[in-house]
Amino acid sequence: QFQKHHFNIEATRLKLVEAANYVDKFYRSLNIRIALVGLEIWNNWNKCDVTENPYSTLKSFLAWSSKERAYRKHDNAQLITGVPFQGTTVGLAPVMAMCSDLQSGGVNMDHSDNAIGVAATIAHEMGHNFGMNHDSAGCCTTPAEDGGCIMASATGHPFPKVFNQCNRKELEKYLQSGGGMCLSNMPDTKNMYGGRKCGNGYLEEGEECDCGDVEVTIVQIQYLGFSGTLCFANTLMSPGTLCRERAGLCDLPEYCTGESPFCPLNSYQIDGAACDGGRAYCYSGMCLTYQDQCMQLWGPGARPAPDACFEKVNAAGDIYGNCGKDIYGNYRKCEMRDAKCGKIQCQSSASKPLQSNAVAIDTTIRTQRTQLRCRGTHVYRPESEENEMLDPGLVLTGTKCGSHHVCFEGRCQNTSIIFDSESCSKKCHGRGVCNNNKNCHCNQGWAPPFCNKPGTGGSLDSGPPMPEGPSAVVITLAILAPILLLIGIMFLFYYLKCWNKFAICSLKKTPQFSDTSGNGHANPAFKLKTPQEQRKVIGFPEIPSKPPPQQAPGLRVNAQQPSAFSSGYNCGVGQPTGPALPSPAKDIARRTPPSRPAPPAPKPPVSQDISRPRPPQRALPANPVPARPRAWPGNSPAISLPPARPRTPGQLQPAVEVGSLKGVTMISYCKTPSSTASQ
């Protein structure tokens, strides 16, 4: 590439940066941002073997980039070279390997002087890393004169610029399987190539918000601001709040730190960690099993075939059974130990594989006791594409092929050679797992970094989780609640006791006033009886069997009548005005009438101080209580009471407002300010 631009570093740099910007623009339609975090131009020598063979070039480049990833963090690496590949191949990349530490990348040939040409190839090969296959018939609706689609099997001028719905579905399927674990992290804007820039859509230091280029619409601006993707939150969640749930068997949860508005970087279990009950290994954030791969190819109900199918079919070394291709593009026979890393063999009742351009390869194997039906898949592609894309019918890299063995590059290899999971897990003392940063993610009850001390779990990368069980606040409330309740009950009893004493003392000291109304006379003429299903107002005075003791001049205390509900306080005037209340509609049981008339009721004073009651200076004159002649049951004569006197201003009269709450009747009394009628 450097030689193609006549050894001009600046010209080479400008074209590559422009191509990266195009790739970012293409992927925005899939809600993916491509951030350029590094650009390296080899102007002296190549740091990997770059030849006309795309397979050997890819293998050499991926080995170099996997070593560089340990020092320079990145998700994906793409090689752009001016060396022409053999045949019509312009690029090559592993499928479903975006987050693989060993295989995330691709090689691309710069076949055009226009930056958008190499950008289309980079986006295509990166699409294979994202799990996208070549477009099947009917997927691309963009006409060829407009460039067609990026994932088409061939490219030309004008160059493609769009993805289609088939690509979107394949991407979503790949991400849902856990393949995009490394993509949840926001790029470190300090390390982005080109430095800080307003309008790049990334929130950088010193910016309150960055909504992207001028093509971003108002609706997109509002969405980005609301989601908090680009703008800081107003408040911080408390430490330990779960901000990113576990998204698969190999994923790990993240928690708020209380110091940042952003969730910590996504972390997941290290490649080679056991998953699915020890039946598989984690690889690139995915738990890869033969069962899941068969279901992806054949649909629900599919399952892996017996080992005999793998051994028999993949020993052929042809297009239907093999362990991949060598660096020359020839199919390799599978050795017995590598048979389960070749073409995957399944058992399914489906008529054909799910992929539109795939066909079933059925093989029948006879054993001593039974007959096995082995089903493989073959994706038909033009001969020009055979060397461009790896076979999707092969067992995926990272699949467990035996005890402590994993499929890698078409061979069943020891995990100690490929992964570093066992040595990393030893420092976690058996109380946690290693994450992709090779830090311990501790179980609940143990603290990072080595899970050898009590704590709340989590890791240095994920943030601290909430303590298991009730929090300190809940424990404190649980302890204080009974104490506060006891104090409240004691205070209530004390208050009621003091209130009863105060009410009795008030009646003794101020016989003409009642504490319940605050400014009225005691009224023995009304008494409230409230049975559960009956409300009656008795319009005659309660007559005691004998005169009450003379505790104070003019004071009359009624004897309490036994009842389930009785009024504790009576407030009102001694002389009701207006016509007498009508008789009750129904007869009710009454006590036996007294043998002698009731003593006269006390006469109210002519004037009084409404604001504050004062004790009488002298005995009040007699004031008969008005009542209607009433006939008592039996032979007792009616009791005649004198007519009522005219009502004087400033006195109280009973209101007509009656309410009921759960069968308990309440009558309220109101103050009449003048001689007008009651409201």
Layout of SSEs?
Blueprint: H1 9-27, H2 54-68, E1 77-81, E2 91-92, E3 105-109, H3 115-129, H4 165-176, H5 218-227, E4 242-244, E5 254-255, E6 274-275, E7 280-283, E8 286-288, H6 290-298, E9 303-304, H7 307-313, E10 346-347, E11 358-366, E12 371-379, E13 400-402, E14 405-408, E15 411-414, H8 415-418, H9 421-426, E16 432-434, E17 440-442, E18 446-447, E19 453-454, H10 472-509, E20 527-529, E21 536-538, E22 652-661, E23 664-671
Helix pairs in contact: 1-3
- Unreliable segments of 5+ consecutive residues: 216-233, 506-546, 550-590, 625-642, 644-679
What strand line-up does the widest sheet have?
1-3-2
Radius of gyration: 46 Å
Please provide the count of β strands: 23
Q: Assign the CATH topology of the domain at 2-185.
A: Collagenase (Catalytic Domain)
Number of contiguous helices: 10
- Which percent band covers the strand fraction? 5-15%
* CATH architecture level-2 label of the domain at 2-185: 3-Layer(aba) Sandwich
Q: How does the major sheet shape up? A: 3 strands, mixed
Structural class: alpha+beta
Distance separating the two termini: 100 Å
What is the name of the CATH class of the domain at 2-185?
A: Alpha Beta
User: What is the percent of helical residues?
Assistant: 10-25%
Mean pLDDT: 75
Under CATH, the homologous superfamily of the domain at 2-185 reads Collagenase (Catalytic Domain)
Textual characterization of the structure:
Among the domains are: 2-185, Collagenase (Catalytic Domain); 273-419, no CATH class. The chain has 679 residues and is of the alpha+beta class. The protein is built from ten helices and 23 strands. Mean pLDDT is 75; it is low at 216-233, 506-546, 550-590, 625-642 and 644-679. Strands 1-3-2 form a three-stranded mixed beta sheet, sandwiched between helices. It has a three-stranded antiparallel beta sheet with strand order 6-7-8. Its main location: membrane.
